[in-house]
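lol ok so funny story. i was supposed to be doing the assay writeup but got distracted and ended up predicting the structure for this chain instead. priorities right. anyway since i did it might as well share w the group, maybe its usefull for someone
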Amino acid sequence: MNCCVVRNFVLAVTIVIIMSVVSLSTAFAQGPLPDAPVPAIEFAPVVANPIAPAPSGDHIGEPSLEHRFWDAQNIALFTAVGASSGADFAVTRSNLQSGGKELNPVVRLFGRSTPGLAVNFCGETIGVIGISYLFHKTGHHKLERMTSMVNIGISVGAVSYGVTHR
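and the output, tada:
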């Protein structure tokens, strides 16, 4: 009985954490109130200096070069995140059906069934996109890209380990 209570508690906490991360990105996406007056902004003319380097926005005090969230680089990164998570799902499912053991304790909670395992890896992909969006909205563009790269590396490492230890 104690084991079931602990298992249900851990599952509930995991779901709350995942939902918090996903909903956190929407908290930073709020704009001005509809009835609030919008201040008039005057733009000064921009003069290009071919000798000066373009501002990167990665250092304090430098202006940021704003890019769209769904630009070509993020689309490629998110596609790679989805593909590596899909490969991780396939290898993990195959190993578990062959009598293998899941080493990741978070995935172990979901890995008792194929739908549960699919929810885990889909949630992982959605979480990476959500965290990247949070970094994008707060102006941390290097971290925005790095989140996907780290996840791809971890998934590829898990797939490599799973394939070599069948």
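The two ends are 33 Å apart (CA to CA). The chain has a mean pLDDT of 78.
back to the writeup now i swear
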